[in-house]
Structure formats: structure tokens, C-alpha cells
Amino acid sequence: MSDVKLTMAHHKRPFANYEAKHFLWSVSNDAGGRPSIGTITLNRPDKKNPLTFDSYAELRDLFRGLVYATDIKTIVVTGAGGNFCSGGDVHEIIGPLTKMSMPELLDFTRMTGDLVKAMRACPQPIISAIDGICAGAGAMMALASDMRLGTPQAKTAFLFVRVGLAGADMGACTLLPRMIGQGRASELLYTGRVMTAEEGLQWGFFNGLHDGGAVLSAAQTLADQIACGPTFAHGVTKKLLHQEWNMGVDEAIEAEAEAQAICMQTKDFRRAYDAFVAKQKPVFNGD
């Protein structure tokens, strides 16, 4: 057991100085002055921020690595130039896919799915700030986030059917019905049509709508609020929100009982109690 703890400790590291190659990465401080909020900006505005083989892989690897981050408490994902993400680049991804063998295609589709898995498995809550086009794989990144803030101009489309593919891509057939309902998800996945911002808000896809110039700030404010909370406990919440999809009620209640008992052993739990007794606001350290 001690060897396992040493191995895990060896992988722990700060991510404030991570140097992204295929998108922008920045880290800002929370209200307590601690580096805490990591912002990913998809940065190909001339093409509405499409993904490439390389950006898919780097995003997957970053989210996997954030499991071991000592400084990142929340993550914001956004796009440059008034759009979120237009999906896979037509010339750099879709064109090459038409020439690949079945094993190569399966490697690719598994890699794209691994991005969603990595986003769901990283303990930090993820907030997407969505303006303009949010399509294909971009819509799936938004869907894989824990919360989504949009603008009235946001246009979300799961447009796989438009390029002759199934709506079953990157987990869409399981994630989208749970978010907006089976019938609405079926319509979007069969037709590939745009879900308007108003529909997205009414259906529960968006947590809120903000003006274009304010959506990123709103997402970062929400990220700051969450970062100042008990981040170990937030990670437990995220894990169980994901795992309980496959549990019965009795099993879920037992899992939450065990999880809460673990959280009651944290220093943050004691800090909250001491602050309450002293009539002060608790300062959480995530331990």
C-alpha cells in the first residue's frame, strides 16, 4: 500500500505551467489568490475552432493528466473568435478518414471517445462557455462538461448524420438523452438540426445564457465559486453523478453513504465546522 501511495504522489504535479501545443491553456487565481482555474481556449478562429487529430489527442491527454493536478480546481472550456467549436476539421480529419482501413478508423473513433471518458473521469468540474457554432465533436465536448453557459447566438448541432454517419458518436446516444430527454435527443441525432440557444436553455442543456461578451466571464465566475469550495468533495460528487447512472436506488444510496463517510474524514469538513462555530466563512484547502 505504501508503494502505491508513493507512486501516486510521484505523479502529482502543478499544471499552471503546462504548455499546450494545439490550443491555448491559461491558469488564473481563485478569490483566495491561489492558482485554481484552468481555461482551455480552442484557438483556430478562422475555421471556427475545429479539432484535428493532434488536438483531440492533446485534449485527451490533458484531461487524463489533470487527475494528478495539485493546483487546478476547476476547468473552463471556450473557443476563440465568437465560436466554440465546429467539430472535426473537414480537410484534416474527415478527408483522411475516407482513406483509412477499418483498424485505423476504430483507433480514431476510440480516441475521440477517450476524450469524453477523460473529461468525465477528471475530478475537476468542467464548465463550457459556448458562443456561436458548437457542432459535432464540439457539441460532444460541451455535453461531456459538467455545466454549460451559452449565448443567445449559440447554435448546437450533433450533425454526424449530415456527413453520412450515425448519431452514435463519442457517447451521444447515452449522454444526450439523459440531458434533454429521449425524444428530443432522437430528433437532434436523426436530423442533425441546430438546437437553438433558447431550446437548449428550456431543455436543460444550458445552465444559463449570457451576452456574447459576458459568457466567458460568467463561466470563470462560476468556476471561481466552485474552486473556493471543498474540492475533494466536489470530485466525489462528480464521480457519483457519473457512476450512479448505472446503479439502482438502493445501491446508489449505499454508495453515497460510503462517499459521505469518507468526506467526513477530511480536514475541510472540520474546517467548515470550526468556521461555523466561530461564525466565519470557511476556507477550504481540498484535503
Automatic annotation (TrEMBL):
Classification via InterPro entries: ClpP/crotonase-like_dom_sf, Enoyl-CoA_hyd/isom_CS, Enoyl-CoA_hydra/iso, Enoyl-CoA_hydra_C
Sorted UniProt keywords: Lyase
PROSITE patterns, per database record: ENOYL_COA_HYDRATASE
Pfam families: ECH_1
Transmembrane segments: none
Keyword Lyase: yes
Family: Belongs to the enoyl-CoA hydratase/isomerase family.
Protein name: Enoyl-CoA hydratase
Species of origin: Pandoraea horticolens
Organism placement in taxonomy: Bacteria, Pseudomonadati, Pseudomonadota, Betaproteobacteria, Burkholderiales
